[in-house]
Write a structure and sequence with these properties.
The structure is a single chain. By secondary structure, the chain is mainly β. Helices cover about 10% and strands about 30% of the residues. It contains three helices and ten strands; from the N terminus they run αααββββββββββ. It has helices spanning about 1-15, 35-40, 100-105, and strands at about 115-120, 125, 130-135, 135-145, 150-160, 160-175, 180-185, 205, 220-235, 240-255. The strands form two sheets. Strands 2, 3, 5, 6, 7, 9 and 10 form a seven-stranded mixed β-sheet that branches. It is elongated, with a radius of gyration of 41 Å.
Length: about 260
């Protein structure tokens, strides 16, 4: 009799200390209302089918389901299995964008410099332009190369959760000689007057016609440096290559070589 009395007292005291707005929820297999879990985190709810009808699964019932952890379903309650938020209620950062996409977006920040044209004939201060003759060798080369005009030029940037490191280097220079001819070279060889009228060993041209029929009476020579840009993602280790180019021009007058009769 005494035991029954004590149990009755315990039950009365337990219900006396429950929050005033807490109500008993009928046993059901559905997820409890989200507001219940948000108002009373840690209070077990009647979501287990094994809970007696009209009662709540309190800590003494082994099959209880708590609001904090283990609750099935959604409802936005604390301890939800929804992976869209972390334990602190904050959404996790989005995954990084693909590295090639980031590299393509970041490479636009690199503006390659054109080469400085090295060429014989040089600009004559009296004429204000270059002058040579049909059949004489023309030498072309990259004058005063620097990291920005030849490479290696290194830089890095970040976007979309990716950090990309770039290394840019000129691979070739394409010379458009103005007469319909193109010559593709590396850095070329610097001319010295001691060489005389010999052809360049690495990058040269000979005109077969004068330039008198061209605009201004001169050929326009355009040098296009072709850059290869290697990139590496510091985020996921992936690699790739991109390309870029830069151009600059000069003009040369080509005359007919006159013979002198003696």
């Amino acid at each position: 009799m005494t035991c029954v009395y004590l149990v009755g007292v315990i039950i009365v005291v337990f219900f006396f200390f429950l929050p005033p707005s807490f109500s008993v929820v009928a046993a059901t297999s559905e997820t409890p209302p989200a507001d219940l879990c948000s108002k009373y985190p840690g209070i077990p709810t009647c979501v287990e089918a094994s809970a007696p009808e009209g009662t709540c699964a309190f800590p003494h019932i082994a099959s209880m389901t708590m609001c904090t952890g283990g609750q099935s379903g959604g409802g936005g309650s604390e301890g939800s299995d929804d992976d869209s938020t972390d334990a602190g209620g904050f959404a996790p950062p989005p995954p990084p964008i693909p590295a090639p996409e980031a590299a393509a977006a970041l490479v636009s920040s690199f503006t390659p410099a054109a080469i400085q044209i090295g060429m014989t004939p040089k600009v004559n201060s009296d004429w204000g332009h270059r002058r040579s003759y049909v059949g004489l060798p023309i030498w072309m080369w990259v004058a005063d190369p620097s990291p920005s005009s030849w490479g290696v030029y290194s830089y890095s940037g970040s976007t979309g959760g990716q950090t990309i490191t770039f290394e840019a280097q000129v691979s070739t220079v394409t010379w458009s000689m103005g007469d319909g001819t193109t010559v593709t070279c590396g850095m070329g060889s610097i001319y010295s007057p001691a060489y005389g009228n010999v052809s360049s060993p690495s990058c040269g041209h000979k005109y077969t016609q004068t330039s008198k029929a061209r605009p201004g009476g001169m050929y326009t020579v355009t040098a296009t440096s072709n850059w290869v840009i290697s990139w590496t993602s510091a985020t996921d280790g992936s690699t790739g290559t991109l390309t870029a180019s830069a151009s600059t021009s000069t003009q040369v007058q080509i005359l007919e070589l006159q013979s002198v009769n003696t």
